[in-house]
Amino acid sequence: MKNSINWGIMGCGRIASLFAEDLRTLKNSRIIGVASLTPEKADHFAKAHRIPKSYTKYESLAEDPDIDIIYVATLHNAHYNNTQMALHSGKHVLCEKPFTLNAAQAKDLIETARVKNLFLMEAMWTRFLPASQKIKQLIDQGAIGEIITLRAEFGFYSPWNPNDRLHNLNMAGGALLDIGIYPVSYAHWIFGEKPLKVYGSAYIGSTHVDEHSTYLLTFSKGRSALLFSSFNIKMPNEALIAGTKGYIRIPNFFKPTKFWMHDQKGKQHIFRIPYKSTGLQYQVKTASDCIGKGDIESPIMPLNETLEIMETLDTLRNQWGLVYPEE
Prior knowledge:
- The protein is of the alpha/beta class and 327 residues long.
- The chain folds into two domains: 5-125 and 280-294, NAD(P)-binding Rossmann-like Domain (Rossmann fold); 130-274 and 310-320, Dihydrodipicolinate Reductase, domain 2, CATH 3.30.360.10.
- The protein is 33% helix and 25% strand.
- 47% of the residues are buried.
């Protein structure tokens, strides 16, 4: 059992900064290196977060012998190459969502990690939050019966900017990969299987990415999920999980701190389960604990499920004719 896990961070954007702050709340994890292709960014990030080493090449971070695991927080279209580099350097990896651009890339990374016996996980932080874990526990215990349908959306308003990564095809922009993955991943998790049928519609804007899109996933036994994502529409970002004996309503399902369960008798149960800091530390703890025990994947975010989610995203994009330059 390894007592302390040494982390490296690849990329110095906003999510990496939040990640660094949250990781410091854990006793068995510490950050010892960070890398950015922009020299001043790496130095500034290292000083701001009291990280001893900074690199201007990702390869240098991956080759640092003192680092156990690398958190990949680069742009979407760089995840595959950056993660592959880290794995081939013998490093465990926690990679931001979307895991890759497509299922073929995801499959390749998973095969590499398994051959090299290295831990690999998609950073779907929502699943690891205390309230999310409680919701899943209630569902698995049959508190609202058999789940029949899920409705969830994730939308916010972002001023139109053709140079912003959300609108930029060359940066793998679009609502689906950036935020649509939240409800899609949530549906896979709640139903516990890959959908039998996938249908989606999207508005493709002038920069050739989906600005808002809707997804209908059909699962076994006639169960279904209706999902939506957008970066030009302000939405409540709620989820409603309905079963044969009740339903659960979750405000801000991607970062829940409270939810309501209505049982078969019509009684309302209120759950308030806050999380500390920004909530990213729970996935970090899971990754560090798995590495310490010698496990190469997490049962909360297993690799086979990550692959199935990428296959669902591929199916949707294929229906829209949305292809990224790297593909």
